[in-house]
Amino acid sequence: MDPKNPPISNFIRAIVADDVESGRTQQVATRFPPEPNGYLHIGHAKSICLNFEVADEFKGRTNLRFDDTNPVKEDTEYVESIQEDVRWLGFEWEELRFASDYFEEFYERALLLIRKGLAYVDDSTPEEMRELRGTLTQPGRNSPYRDRSVEENLDLFGRMRAGEFPNGARVLRAKIDMSSPNITMRDPVLYRISHAHHHRTGDAWCIYPMYDFAHPLSDAIEGITHSICTLEFEDHRPLYDWAIEQCEMESRPRQYEFGRLNLTNTVMSKRKLKQLVDEGIVDGWDDPRMPTISALRRKGFTPEAIRTFCREIGVARAYSIVDEQMLEHFIREDLKLKAPRTMAVVRPLKVVITNYPEGQVEWLEAENNNENEEMGTRQIPFSREIYIEQDDFMENPPAKYFRLFPGNEVRLKHAYFIKCEEVVKDEAGEVVELRCTYDPETKSGTGFTGRKVKGTLHWVEASHAVSAEFRHFEPLITSEAEEGDKTFLECINPDSLQVLGGFVEPGMKEAAAGDKFQFFRHGYYSVDPKLTTSERPVFNRVVSLKSSFNPAQA
What we know:
Layout: H1 11-22, E1 29-32, H2 42-57, E2 61-66, H3 76-88, E3 96-98, H4 103-115, E4 119-122, H5 126-133, H6 150-162, E5 171-174, E6 189-193, E7 207-209, H7 211-221, E8 226-230, H8 237-246, E9 254-258, H9 270-278, H10 293-299, H11 303-312, H12 324-335, E10 341-342, E11 344-345, E12 348-353, E13 361-367, E14 377-383, E15 385-389, E16 409-412, E17 417-425, E18 431-439, E19 456-457, E20 460-461, E21 466-473, E22 497-504, E23 516-519, E24 523-527, E25 538-543
Parallel strand pairs: 1-2, 2-3, 8-9, 10-23, 12-18, 16-19, 21-25
Antiparallel strand pairs: 4-5, 5-6, 6-7, 11-22, 12-15, 13-14, 15-20, 16-17, 17-18, 21-22, 23-24, 24-25
């Protein structure tokens, strides 16, 4: 374990610790079992951290296992992206496994259930099965095919595997209890027919196991000791145990459930996220407005911030929603001593310093991070023409406005005091340029104390400025998605992306994809790896500088 981040106690860790201390578990073995039908999101990050960190703390092992039992929705693109995400978060698996590695053994265990009279082939239609299943208050009724003989079931199941029947014609069901108060135990489906090409096994199979059958058997085959999953699988635990017991598996893993991660103003359903991608509402799975791990990486989040967030929010048994500002808090904390601090103007307004010598360029020294002296200093140019923010000037300001206005004096960060003398407007009456004067005695770092000013502005020198694009993000889903009968697509925020064009310091020309900076007064930014070109960098705002959020009160 990382000595800087000692383990935080939770009920899962307590269970594992007790099992190890009592000798019930000799070597802890966990697994992260994603379905390769989409990209991982921040909720998966919580599960990844929990599984890998618990095993690591107790000197155990963790497998990455793909639950590739539904070829209709799966793709190698998702397999590759999931591996990339897990590694980027800082974890390495003991073994890379696939449920499809065990298809033959799953089939043999299903035959065992049939021979024991615990599974049968059902010809009922999906509608008939739903009708017979019952409700939460009414028990189910037996299928008319439930009492087929062992011989007939073996014959039909073998013919299902041989591809004699079309999709949906038959299923293999467990024979448990149609009157069970737990609907999951009412003769659940174990196998269905699907004539679909599998990304690993090709066309070798046309029947595929259901998750509730493949998952416990996979855990048992791999010798998993603690099968950690989210709370929605709590009702499936009796079936998990039943499958391991009745299939006579040598290893007996145990399942434990925890509350999944939910963030405000965010959808976590892979089906909904895929819909956003497929309908072009976002620019792919890694669009920085998405909650996917690849999107957070592209936006500029660090794996350290995500791991810390996942540890600090805790592991509980109950469903809860975490304020998205808590995630933002941890990336601020992670970047504040790491990110160089520089200046960028996102809505430029030209300033001409009329008493500064024409053609002269002066190089000034600026610290890279005033909270981390080890990051050193840089040289920035200063000349007669600079850019400031449009928001830093008002022609008719209100009281206690300390930035630039006619007749007022402000400090340029790392440079001089300037005073606004004249305002230049275009034909439409819009301010397009300011004419100012500077006081050469007020240079930063010289110890000038002749007078004080209350406003300090950031700026970029015009002749060396690098043209840049800035992308600012707001939540993709409005809070209304949690209220009333609106669908999540009706709650898409039309202002979730704002694209601005401005300038950065000349040193930014060398910035590489993924490099992170704090732009004075604007926030933390990261170089976009997809949109940046050699001519023009594109910066994604990771997070603003400040928030009213208090993690101690969360």
